[in-house]
Amino acid sequence: MTQDELKQAVAKAAVDHIAPHLEPSSIVGVGTGSTANFFIDYLAEYRNDFDGAVASSEATAERLKKHGIPVYDLNAVNEIEFYVDGADETNESLELIKGGGGALTREKIVAAVAKTFICIADESKMVGILGEFPLPVEVIPMARSHVGREIVKLGGDPVYRDGFVTDNGNIIIDIHNMDISRPIQVEERLNNIVGVVTNGLFARRPADLLLLGTSEGVKSIA
Ligand code: 5RP
């Protein structure tokens, strides 16, 4: 199977998982990226079975609206039962690196609110130790150099994502060659740097369920 077919398979599995729980008042949290896009397309088949969605990016909001799915501001929503999103890397503890698409901050906010975070990923995203994929960090623009220097002190190689502006008007620094053998500690240390908005480690709040697309089928890991 191609990588896209694996992404489609996990996206469909996620919809199959949540569909029996959808109620007319349900709000679904929706992530960002190509796997999340497949999820949106399948979710649209159930658009009459739930109220609407909260989007983790402008691109996701646009795609949801194109399918006729109402998009709510998170502040207008009381409860999100499920948040479904892809990842750039996952380990067996369902700790993730996210933010390859630069939407990490809104993704982390929606994941924090959701009762159940379902990660959908093809098997290429499963790693032993996180960090082969560069770790994205969203940074207030004026703090770029300061944050870069602090990242070097933590042992990482910061690379400015040239020309990229997040939905929140900030910049992204991608950290290469960082030792992420202790993900929670790294997540917290990066959060403590002044000027950092969010980092792409989802370790303090990992996924609750991983639907992993493999050539033998979709594996559920909780
Ligand atoms: C966007 C993300 C995505 O979930 C991550 O980049 C995976 O993307 P894709 O599903 O296209 O492989 O974190 O900020």
UniProtKB/TrEMBL annotation:
Superkingdom assignment:
Bacteria
InterPro entries from the UniProt entry:
NagB/RpiA_transferase-like (IPR037171), Ribose5P_isomerase_typA_subgr (IPR020672), Ribose5P_isomerase_type_A (IPR004788)
Example GO biological process term? pentose-phosphate shunt, non-oxidative branch
Is-annotated flag, keyword Isomerase? yes
Active site, per annotation: 107
Question: Known catalysed reaction(s)?
Answer: aldehydo-D-ribose 5-phosphate = D-ribulose 5-phosphate
| KW Isomerase (keyword) present | yes
E.C. numbers: 5.3.1.6
UniProt keyword annotations, A-Z: Isomerase
One MF term in GO for this entry?
A: ribose-5-phosphate isomerase activity
Q: Write out the residues that bind substrate.
A: 32-35, 85-88, 98-101, 125
**Which pathway does the database say it acts in?**
Carbohydrate degradation; pentose phosphate pathway; D-ribose 5-phosphate from D-ribulose 5-phosphate (non-oxidative stage): step 1/1
Which of the seven top EC classes does this enzyme belong to?
A: isomerase
Would you tell me the Gene Ontology cellular component terms?
cytosol
What's this protein's function?
Answer: Catalyzes the reversible conversion of ribose-5-phosphate to ribulose 5-phosphate.
Similarity comment text for this entry: Belongs to the ribose 5-phosphate isomerase family.
Instruction: Describe the subunit structure.
Output: Homodimer.
> Mind telling me what this protein is named?
Ribose-5-phosphate isomerase A
